[in-house]
Design goal:
The protein has ten helices and 17 strands. It has about 375 residues and is an alpha+beta fold. The strands form four sheets. It has a six-stranded mixed beta sheet. It has a six-stranded mixed beta sheet with strand order 5-6-7-10-15-12. Strands 11-14-13 form a three-stranded antiparallel beta sheet, with no helix packed on it. The radius of gyration is 21 Å and the shape is globular. The protein starts with about 35 loop residues before the first strand and ends with a helix. Belongs to the DNA repair enzymes AP/ExoA family. Its cofactor is Mg(2+).
Amino acid sequence: MSREISPPPSKRQKMSPTEPTFVNLTTPSPLAAPDADTMRIFSWNVNGIAPFLQRPITNFFSSKKSHVKLQPASLRECLKRHQWPAILFLQEVKIATRDVKTQDAVRSAVNARLSPGSSKSERGPRYEAYFTLPLDKHNARGLGGRGKVYGVCSIIREDLTTKYQTKVRTVEWDKEGRISVVELKNGSTRVALFNVYAVNGTDNPYRDPATGAIRGTRHDRKLAFHRLLMEECLSLEEDGWEVLLAGDMNVAPARIDGHPRLRTFPQQHVLNRADFNFRFLGGKKQREEKVFDGVDVWRRMNEYEKRYTWFSRNQEWGTSCDRVDYIIVGRKMWDKALVRAAGILDSEAERGPSDHVPIWVDIRLARANEQEDDTNTG
């Protein structure tokens, strides 16, 4: 095609996007506690879990060009600072499947005491950590072929399992450690929460996971990943589940989501973006195909605001960035007004040792007794 493929311009042409604001807090800014009936979900591509498991050093990741004083790279401190969220989704943890020692270290880190002799109320709730790690020896070798690459971790507050029947699983078609699904059930409430670390499209070869034979490029695998994830979402919705996806989607949806400009070269990145928007964000239906009609929560709530989630560590803060981490909910969940709030913690302090910043969403899930009351009303 001769023209660039991108989402159509907004009909409200008289308004224009705001200029980007780059926050440079000296310390992270904690969020207010969520309402009692609200579930807060955090998502963060940490670009390697190792810094969060060593002895905290507050200024270890400070840039020579920056006066930002970073908080300790501590998972427990992060959970406390943000009012003990119900779920923390981590992407790109870079843990090998056989590395049980590091997995146990993460489990200890999310439940560590923040200070000696702290009272039970100060210690906060306990969490469970669930891992989806690479099994594909041909496409997820990592440095030295040890499989220390990709991987996601879903950290769930323990009390959630008393409110809901909770199941954590992956999907059969992903062997690279990119998908974790948390299923919550309570009465007629059925919610599937996806922790997603999407494929990054490149010209590098994609190999058959079983034989190692070349089956196209990583661009081809990215398109297949979109289709397979979409089909997974559609299957769950058809079975009565509400669906939410959170994580690093490895694609900025529109021009407003790239700074100083959206990536359009090589052309395949444009095609990848169009495919993602078509399958997940209600893009123009160019062919007869059922798609997941999702809502990009933060963008819907902040239509013209320029904010980003990935910030290059090789350049000065705010000079090269994209919004590639976001939360998508199914149309049914959005129309029921179950989404309360969403945000991006886009400061150099919150980025910490990663090249991404955390994002969050508050959702309301009715309990079984509330649903019974609704059923009996009138």
